[in-house]
Design the sequence.
């Protein structure tokens, strides 16, 4: 997981750059390996083209564990709304805005990130006086730890967590493991890949992003399970 965080998962810009660097090293450090360098670059191109196919992206994302329907919160009457920073931020903002508007007394706490979510929520009409940003949590476990710390003084408060449909399987397992009294609101992907028709076989950047984020979540789930965190 450390390697994936450092380089990025397949489909990410750092990962592609790393693969291109390998190709350049093969081409210029070992000039006689020009054929191998070209084969490597074509392999990288073909691999990412496949990941950019919507039906492939849907397949990778679809194999993530389902979030139990009973864990999905309604969008009314929330007292404390946590918005986790992560993939597909625009989808998280749309869901958070729906909840915040349906629960006008809810305090909104953003966990992680650089302030983009705070600005986006404010631009969508959520008063800045309702929004608090905590930049400290750098991963999902730390986000859950912060939810547990902040909800402990008032366990009767109705609490909800917004995370993308790709991250939510991991969030839901951590919530159960930690005994955090929070309902879950699954936000959509920023740009959902098509699910039918001829566009399923047309590579797109948005599908590549879904493949990238889903691969990361599969790796994270495997690591969290192996470490006994979920």
Sequence:
């Amino acid at each position: 997981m450390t390697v994936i965080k450092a380089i990025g998962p397949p489909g990410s810009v750092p990962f592609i750059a790393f693969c291109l660097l390998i190709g350049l090293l093969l081409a210029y450090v070992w000039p006689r390996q020009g054929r191998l360098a070209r084969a490597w670059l074509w392999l990288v191109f073909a691999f990412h083209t496949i990941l950019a196919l919507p039906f492939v992206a849907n397949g990778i994302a679809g194999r993530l564990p389902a979030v139990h329907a009973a864990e999905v919160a309604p969008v009314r009457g929330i007292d404390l709304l946590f918005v986790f920073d992560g993939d597909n931020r625009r989808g998280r903002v749309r869901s958070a805005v729906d909840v915040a508007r349906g629960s006008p007394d809810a305090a909104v706490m953003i966990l992680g990130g650089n302030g983009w979510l705070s600005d986006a929520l404010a631009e969508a009409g959520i008063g800045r006086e309702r929004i608090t940003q905590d930049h400290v949590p750098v991963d999902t476990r730390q986000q859950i730890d912060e939810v547990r710390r902040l909800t402990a003084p008032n366990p009767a408060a109705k609490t909800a967590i917004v995370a993308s449909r790709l991250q939510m399987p991991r969030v839901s397992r951590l919530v159960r493991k930690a005994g955090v009294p929070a309902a879950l609101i699954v936000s959509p992907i920023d740009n959902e890949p098509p699910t039918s028709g001829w566009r399923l076989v047309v590579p797109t950047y948005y599908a590549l992003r879904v493949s990238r984020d889903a691969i990361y979540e599969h790796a994270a789930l495997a690591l969290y399970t192996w470490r006994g965190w979920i």
Notes: Residues 173 and 225 are 10 Å apart (CA to CA). The mean pLDDT is 89.
